[in-house]
Design goal:
By secondary structure, the chain is α/β, with parallel strands linked by helices. The protein has 6 helices and 19 strands. α4 runs parallel beside α5. The protein binds flavin-adenine dinucleotide (FAD).
């Protein structure tokens, strides 16, 4: 029987574990993929406070892991498949068929950036292809870049990049945007943003770095080459919370919480990118994890 099981070993999960471990709670992290989550798959984190010259994502998360383990956190590589309430507490069942009992749970499973799924995308990740302007925009000062998408986050990304890059193309597969009107109005009067409407990306080309996008007109089928040094894919995130079906309600796959990271189920907390929230960054995931760790400690004392 564990006091706390944390699902996900990203910035939120490890931050929560550091707090529950220091509070002497028997803590287990279950991780289905890469230790360190999305942060550990990012080359340079340039905006996490305390690192004036940036920090490698793998190195940062390795330190998170060591710190959590120093306070007794155990880690098991397994995927959580479902959760049930039982008389003794909560039962977690994994894809490999193992069962774990725990008094409390922190869900910190993050969300994956939705990919375009075109030729060249995987090849040029970190070499022109990015999924986060706040994270990587600063590398494209005075460059030509493109943003792909038509929602709120794509328009925001374009406006953010317009202050950094020389030229920003906003590529959208439709005519209209699903974004806040004030942001759309601002985008339309920003001189260095050019709209490429009714276009989809059919491939990404380059050599050692990306050099251009091949755009296809959805009406005529005509293709054009667009020279850009960077492309920011902003077509949404994919939360993976199917395993919560029948246990906890989600909103578009995301988990609503209060400011203590409590969900609608007593003893179950959520932290990091998987929460209903606006800023999905390493620093905010850390903040959520800390709050969840402290709240769980209080809950178990009671
Ligand atoms: C390409 C990219 C670049 C980024 N760059 C920056 C940056 O420069 N600065 C910045 O602040 N932010 C950046 N971000 C955002 C940042 O990575 C996230 O905000 C942060 O990782 C959120 O942490 P998390 O702990 O909530 O989730 P994650 O890091 O996503 O970790 C969640 C973990 O849960 C695991 N998991 C999921 N489902 C299960 C399951 N059922 N069972 C067991 N384990 C499970 C996953 O495998 C994963 O390891 C970037 C994101 C991406 C994708």
């Amino acid at each position: 029987m564990y006091d706390v099981i944390i699902i996900g070993s990203g910035a939120a999960g490890f931050s929560a574990a550091i707090y529950t471990g220091r509070a002497k709670l028997k803590t287990l992290i279950l991780e289905k993929g890469v230790i360190g989550g999305n942060t550990a798959q990012t080359d340079l984190i340039d905006n996490y406070p305390g690192f004036p010259f940036g920090v490698n994502g793998v190195d940062l998360m390795e330190d998170f892991r060591k710190q959590a383990e120093r306070f007794g956190t155990e880690i098991e590589m397994d995927e959580v498949a479902s959760i049930e309430e039982v008389a003794e507490g909560k039962k977690i069942i994994t894809s490999s068929g193992k069962e774990y009992l725990t008094r409390a749970i922190i869900i910190a499973v993050g969300a994956k950036r939705r990919e375009l799924g075109v030729l060249g995308e995987d090849e040029f990740i970190g070499r022109g292809v990015s999924y986060c302007a706040t994270c990587d925009g600063a590398f494209f000062g005075n460059a030509k870049v493109a943003v792909i998408g038509g929602g709120d986050s794509a328009v925001k990304e374009a406006l953010y990049l317009a202050d950094i890059a020389d030229k920003v193309y906003l590529v959208h597969r439709r005519e209209g945007f699903r974004a806040n009107q004030t942001a759309i109005d601002k985008m339309k009067v920003t001189n260095n943003i050019e709209l490429k409407l009714n276009k989809v990306v059919s491939s990404i080309k380059g050599d050692s770095l990306m050099e251009s996008l091949v755009l296809k007109d959805v009406n005529t089928g005509q293709e054009e080459d667009l020279s850009v040094e960077g492309v920011f894919v902003s077509i949404g995130l994919v939360p993976a919370t199917e395993f919560l079906a029948g246990f906890l309600e989600t909103v578009d796959g995301y988990i609503p919480t209060n400011e203590n990271m409590e969900t609608a189920v007593p003893g179950v907390y959520a932290a990091g990118d998987i929460r209903v929230k606006t800023a999905r960054q390493v620093a905010t995931a850390v903040g959520d994890g800390v709050v969840a760790g402290m709240a769980v400690t209080e809950y178990l004392k009671e």
